[in-house]
Amino acid sequence: MTEAVLDKRLIAQSFSRAASTYDQAAALQRQVGSNLLARLADGLAPRNIIDLGCGTGYFSRALASRYQQPVLGLDLAEGMLRHARQHSGEQRGWAVADAEALPIASASQDLIFSSLALQWCPQLQRALAEAWRVLRPGGCLAFNTLLDGSLDELRNAWRAVDDFVHVNRFMPLGELQPLLAGAGFARWQCEVEQHVLYYPRLGELTHELKALGAHNLNPGRPDGLTGRERLRTLTRAYEQFRGEQGLPATWQVAQIIMIKADGGES
Ligand SMILES: C[S@@+](CC[C@H](N)C(=O)[O-])C[C@H]1O[C@@H](n2cnc3c(N)ncnc32)[C@H](O)[C@@H]1O
């Protein structure tokens, strides 16, 4: 088994475990996905729709309601899909799938929507190529992803403790843009949003990340328990960021709309 496959198994396990707690902790995820939905063109009338990395299916249901079409929810984590199935109407389909190798026929979809899932792909360019392949000419890929700068307060605070990788790496905008440009789409736009959430204590942020399944799954993560002294050092380091509203956690989000050429454009 390759390292990439192993990583994906860990990602799927982590999100499956988080399925029952995800929705209560997902305020930012709701906001960011709703902002993406709002960016979809008014005239869009897709018939074949995929919610890629659908999680608990919140946006699958929103898409189905907006377009009055059944939506296919795809996710790496079976536990998430089980939860989505239990909380959604029966007409929708749900399937385990990897964004980097979609089990979907070429040129068969009108809209692929994907909120805060593709930052988990080790090879984003593969996911983009797969989206391009399965979209019909004129089809739309709408996705968002986390950028470098996200959770930097936590990343920096951990540096006071040790040299391990404690926070997932997110792609810099300068790395993302060439991938978007090279993905074969006729048109695309990418806008960056910054969100800052505030917490009274560090424990509330780390608890929320755990409830979301957004664990650190890097190969360089430390094994074993976090000792009391290390935690104290981490807390002290994070406290340096405290402002009037509490402890900040910054998220940098790229909101991206890409259109595959129809017959008339190249
Ligand atoms: C932060 S959750 C977002 C869920 C949902 N889109 C939302 O906004 O509420 C990320 C989801 O992406 C899924 N995921 C991660 N890597 C994936 C991949 N390679 N292919 C498909 N889904 C993936 C995870 O299992 C998880 O359910």
What would your notes on this structure say?
The chain has 266 residues and is an alpha/beta fold. It has a domain of 184 residues: 3-Layer(aba) Sandwich (Rossmann fold), CATH 3.40.50.150. 39% of the residues lie in helices and 21% in strands. It has a 7-stranded mixed sheet with strand order 3-2-1-4-5-7-6, sandwiched between helices. Helix 1 packs parallel to helix 5. The site of S-adenosylmethionine (SAM) has 24 residues, from helix 1, helix 3 and helix 4.
Q: In CATH terms, what is the architecture of the domain at 3-150 and 168-194 and 251-259? A: 3-Layer(aba) Sandwich
Which bin fits the share of residues in helices?
25-40%
Shape summary: globular
Strand/helix succession: HHHEHEHEEHEHHEHHE
- Give the averaged pLDDT, no decimals: 92
Estimated radius of gyration: 19 Å
Structure summary, number of beta strands:
7
Q: Give the strand content.
A: 15-25%
Largest sheet: 7 strands, mixed
Protein structure class: alpha/beta
The termini sit apart by 39 Å
Major sheet strand order: 3-2-1-4-5-7-6
CATH homologous superfamily grouping of the domain at 3-150 and 168-194 and 251-259: Vaccinia Virus protein VP39
Kindly list the characteristics that best describe this protein.
266 residues, alpha/beta, Rossmann fold, 7-stranded mixed beta sheet, 10 helices, 39% helix, binds S-adenosylmethionine
